[in-house]
Amino acid sequence: MGEEYKAKIFKSGNSLALRLPKALGLADGEEVVVIPHNDGSFSFWKQDQSQEILLGLYGSMSAGFMSDGRGDVDQADRDWGDDGGATAAA
């Protein structure tokens, strides 16, 4: 695992901002993707690395992943009838 950094959250207008150390190698104005996890932690990466991150997930699941299927997934009935003209013209 790499070096550990601390960051500080502060108020910026009506939002919260996260001040990250320059040592992380992010440039001013660079966009990042932030993913919150159920345990309260977050993952983030540079937006231009999204494809690399996604491809890195390939093969990372255990051999038994979903071996029992998806389980019971309730699906709501859908009305495929008239949508009030919301369908885009072809």
Automatic annotation (TrEMBL):
Q: Which UniProt keywords apply?
A: DNA-binding
Disordered: annotated span: 69-90
The domain of life is Bacteria
What Gene3D superfamilies does this protein map onto? 2.10.260.10
GO MF terms, alphabetically ordered:
DNA binding
Question: SUPFAM superfamilies, per this entry?
Answer: AbrB/MazE/MraZ-like
For bias kind Basic and acidic residues, which ranges apply? 69-81
- What does the record list as coiled-coil region(s)? none
What is the protein's given name? AbrB/MazE/SpoVT family DNA-binding domain-containing protein
